[in-house]
Amino acid sequence: MSSVNYVNSFLQESYLPSTTSKSGSSSTASSAGGEVPPDEVDLSSDAFLRETAESGRIALNAANGDLTSDQASQLYQQVTSIQSQIQSDKQADGGTLSPTDAQTINQLQSQLSASIYSDAHNGDAPPSTPSTPSAIGGREAFEAGRIELNQQAGNITSTQAQQLMTQQTQISQQISSDEQSNGGTLTQAQAQQIWQSQNQASQQIYQAAHGGTPAAQ
């Protein structure tokens, strides 16, 4: 499988859980074809959404054999450092990031993103104009990030994380197979099926992180 590259700002639109009541409407949930269940991973801001996705890129590239365990460990240390910086800045700013702090965090995450790319491509520099990933590819990184961060937080065991990552690998293999059979792209029906598979995986991540408790619908 190819290395997992960039994850951009579309994550905010596609994956941020709705803050409306269950009876209210949610353009976020409808755009994603189903709301991602919230879990112990903080999904409340652009910064944390991107941090989750970048963690997923590390996990998926490591699973694909594109990163060594030492490289992955060093990159996760950068993730942890940025997470701590986000928390510290939010506490100092009354629970939100100031525009200046948000810009600084974004720059740190862009540096992390470039490091992930370089390590996964044998030291090559990232392209100056990276291609925007599809929603399908972005979600794969996001769900993998939820698995990794929940494991780091002690919410799921290493065995559970391995099982959930195996599921993501299987979905990735299905995407590759479907794209090969369709000239390099997914048909609408294939994309919908992949998204449904990710919805199921999302529920299983939530349940694993909450002791088997199903996510509220």
Structure description:
The chain is mainly α. It has one domain (10-17, 34-209). 65% of the residues lie in helices and 0% in strands. It has eight helices and no strands. It has helices at 10-15, 27-32, 46-63, 69-92, 99-120, 135-152, 158-181, 188-209. It is globular. The chain starts with 9 loop residues before the first helix and ends in an 8-residue tail after the last helix.
In short:
By secondary structure, the chain is mainly α. It is built from 8 helices and no strands. It has one domain.
Which features does this protein show?
217 residues; mainly alpha
- Write down the domain tally: 1
The fraction of residues in strands falls at under 5%
Helix amount: 55-70%
Biggest β-sheet: count, sense, barrel? none
- Mean pLDDT equals 79
Count the E strands.
0
The SSE string, one letter per element, is: HHHHHHHH
Distance between the termini: 34 Å
Name the structural class: mainly alpha
What is the molecular shape?
globular
Looking at how many chains there are and whether they match, the oligomeric state comes to single chain
Poorly predicted segments: 1-37
Rg calc: 17 Å
